[in-house]
Amino acid sequence: MNNNLHEINHPVLQHKLSILRDKDTNSRAFRDIMNEIGRFLAYEATKNLKSSKVDIQTPIMKASVPVINDYPIVVSVLRAGNGLLDGVLDTLPFSAVGFVGMYRDKFINNTVEYYFKLPEKCEGRDVLLLDPMLATGDTAISALDRLKQYKVGKITMLTVLISPEGLERINHFHPDVEIYTVSKEDGLNESGYLLPGLGDAGDRLYNTK
Fold it and tell me: Which reaction does it catalyse (predicted)?
C-alpha cells in the first residue's frame, strides 16, 4: 500500500459502502449513506489537527481543555463532491467551503473548468478536497493543480472509491497529497468506470439517470 493512501477497513464503513454499491439503493438512501461516510472520512483525516489549551468552567470545576486552532478549508469537486459535503461539515462545522467545477470533455480529451471559488485568505491553509469517485484521476489532478496555484497548505483528499490507476497518477503528479478512502478498487472498465464500483455517483445522488 502506498504511504499516502489510508484505506479505512472499518466494518461499519464497509457495510455502508455495500449499500451504496447496490443498484437498487434509491437516491434518498444513497445521499444519506454518502453523508454518513463523509463524517467518518473527515474524522479519520483530521486526527492530527492542531489544538491548544483554554481555560473553562465546567459545572464542577475549572479545567484546561483542548480546542482546535484552525479548521481546514473544505473544497468540493462538483457535483459528486457535494454528496460528502454535509457529512464533512457535520464533523467540521466551522470550516470555510470552496467549490471546483470540472468535467472531462471527451471531444477535446481534456479537463474543462467551469467554476472555481475559494474562501478569502486561503494561502497557507490546509484543505480537504472532496471527490467520492477517483477513477482516472484527471479531474482530481486538475483540481489539485488549481489549488496549488493559490498556495494553499497541505491538501488531503477524501474519496469513497479509488482506482489503482488513479492512485498511481496522483502519486506521480502530487506525491505530497494524502488520500483517505473506503476502498481501493480492482480497476477500471473500458468506459472508465470503477470496478466493482457503484456507478455514476452524481447521477445516483441526484436521481438524474
Answer: UMP + diphosphate = 5-phospho-alpha-D-ribose 1-diphosphate + uracil
pLDDT tens digits for range 102-146:
877 766 667 888 899 999 989 999 999 999 999 988 899 999 999
Which residue has cell 470533455?
A: 105
CB atoms within 10 A of CB 18: 12
SS3 for 26-83, per residue? CHHHHHHHHHHHHHHHHHHHCCCCCEEEEEEECCCCEEEEEEECCCCEEEEEECCCHH
Identity of residue 68: I
Count structural domains, the chain: 1
Please give the residue range of the domain that contains residue 170.
Answer: 5-206
Helix orientation angle between 11-21 and 27-45, rounded to the nearest 10 degrees: 150
